[in-house]
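Minutes, project check-in
Item: structure for the 334-residue chain
Input as provided by the requester:
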Amino acid sequence: MIQRPTTSIWREAANKLGCDVPAIKAVFEVEAAGKFYEVNGHLPRRFEPHHFPRQHWAALGFNPGKAAPWRASLRIGKTTRHKMFAIAENIDAEAAYRASSWGAPQIMGFNHEAAGYFSAADMVDAFEQGADEQVLAFVEFTIANGLDTHIRSHNWLSFSLGYNGTGQAPVYAAKIESAYRRQSGGKASLPLLRMGSKGAAVRELQVQLEGLGFLVEVDGDFGNGTRRAVREYQEMAGLKIDGVAGAATLRSLAEEQVGDEAAPAIVAPKEERADTVADLNIDKVVKHGTTILGSGGAVGLMSGLNEHSQTILIGGLVVGGIILAALFLFRKRK
């Protein structure tokens, strides 16, 4: 049993959600604040008798009286809950599992399908195997309830409203943002831009999209045209397509801009190139030759050339490879 989530599982969770790792860690930290396992190694469980079939309430000793069943359930102590669960498990194990929340994510058993499992019993069995399963179940549950878009965009208020209801949503949103800054090394969430947003941030978004060739009016008003352009960019960039320019989309656009600005430096003017073949000794030629001729370098150079130039370049690379091989053999024989 792995009692803490592995490093790789956070990356997998972030990939599934299409967000950055600090975002899923922050959300999980706040919304799944429970323990993965008890000190004795058992899976944390909270039995909610009002979710067990009503005809068995008397057998459990559960009598809400005139109070709302859920309110009566809140007043039950831990020891009594354990006793009730034991009775319920003997009556109907699956129903008992469905009426309980499990693990660090505190997912109710009746949400097993949303968490990615065939039955509540299957979910419990998986949670008992390791903490990674609990993280992935939380991710599946989030996606099934359409809350993943809020994590990608760092829209913590909307996420909290969907996950916790209206009661304490602003409080949970503030906690998630605080956790995100801690997880990201002090970085604040990027602004959320969507239908209805206006201002300089929207204008900058539109300028970036226009610079990449998307048809969009640069007016600082996030309307249907901007939403369509955002969706088209998200599809092109392999992002989740939701038409919301949140953290993941804005970060990707910023990387595109940095890449465009850095591109001219790939091939410097001839007079600025210090490492010409004439300046390199045989050791340097042999050492750097494979890098120059490697698929990454070749593809990077080829992408900016026309068909005629590519033919010349390919011929040059082949001849260069032969020369490098000859130089290497000559050096080995010395």
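Outcome recorded: The first strand starts at residue 45 and ends at 47.
No further action items on this chain.
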